[in-house]
Amino acid sequence: MNDVMGHEHRDLLICGGGVIGLSIAYQCAKLGWKVSLLDRGRFGQGASWSGAGILPAGATIEALDPLEQLRSLSHRLHRQWAAELLALTGIDNEYRETGGLYLGRTPAERATLIANEMWWEEHGIAFERWSFSHAQSRLPSLTDRLPLENASDFWWVPSDCRVRNPYHIAALVEANRRLGVELIEDREIISIAVNSDKQPQWRPGVVDLHGQTYSADRLCIASGAWSRQLLGQLGVETGIMPVRGQMVLYKLDAPWFSFVINEGHRYMVPRDDGHLLVGSCEEEVGFDASTTESMIEELKEWACSVVPDLRHAVVKKSWAGLRPGSFDSYPYLGPVPGREGVYVASGHFRHGLHWSTGTAVLMQQLMAGEKTEMDLEPFRVLRGHNSK
Length: 388
Description:
The chain is of the alpha/beta class.
C-alpha cells in the first residue's frame, strides 16, 4: 500500500533525528516496523552531539517519582543497548561503567551532597563518603593532579557511567540504516499535514520546505527544542524551551582518570583517547547556539581549580548546544490530544541521551497500543497548559 505521495506504506514517521528520534526509530525497527526518520539538519548534530554523555546511577529498587522511574529504566537499558549496537554495527559507543566522583569543596556543596545521601539511600543507589586520606588512597590517578587538600569531603557513586555522544549517535544511525529505516536529512518541516476532503483516509504527516509530504500510520514529534513550534501548529502549547549549554574540550596525551568528576552543575568527562570534556551552564537565550568568551573562561577556570595541570593542557575546541527544557523538568511523552496517531517525545532537558533508551521503549509500547512499563500520565502533553 502506498501513501498519497507514492511512497511505501510506513508504520511510523519521526520528526527529529537527535538521540530521542534515533532511539525510537531503532526500538521500533527492531520489532519490524517500517519507519521514516526526518531531520531539519544532520542526524544527531544538535544537543545530542554536544552533550557530555553522563549516565548518573538509577534507582535499583522501586521508585515512586516518575522521573526516577524513567531514569532507572533507561539506566538499566544502556548496557544492553551498547552491546546490541556494537554487535550490529561494530561501533563502540564507549559505554563505560566507571563510577562518578562528587566534590564538596564548600559548605554549601557539602550540604547538598549530604542531602543527596538520603536520596541515594531511598533509591537503593550505592555510594561511599570519603575523607581526604581515603580519597588519596582510592584515586592514585589523581593524587598528583587534584589538589585534594582544598576539599574535605568526597562522594563516590560506583554505578555512574558514561558514553561518548558522537559514537553513540553514529552507532544509532548505522543501526537504523541496517534495519531498513528510511533516513532523510536536511528536511526542514514547515507544517503538519492535516485531514482534508482530498485525503478521506487520513494519515498524519508533515510537509517540508520544498512542499514534499511525508505520512505514516503514526507521527512522532521528537524535534527537541524545536518541537514547540510544530506542536503549536496543532493548537497545543507546551513549556518546551531552548536552554543553552556551553562546553570546553581538552586533548591530553592519555586519560588522566577514567571516571566522571562532578561539582554542582559542573563536570569533567574523560574519553578513552585522552579527550576531556568540561561543562556546563544553563542559559535561556532563545535559539542562539553560539559560545561566549566569558562562559568559556569560567568553565576553564573551574576545571583548573579542580585539576591545576589543565592550565598547561591544549584546549582543542569549544561549542554550545540547545537543550529542550520544560517548565516542570518533565519531558513530554504521549499522544497529542485531538490528533489521532500523533505523538510527542521531547523536553528531556539535560537528560536526553541518558533517558533515550527508556523513552524509546515506552513510546514504542504506547504507539503499539500496549501496556507501558510505567505510567505516562505525569508526562502528558497538556499538563499545566490549555489547548488554544
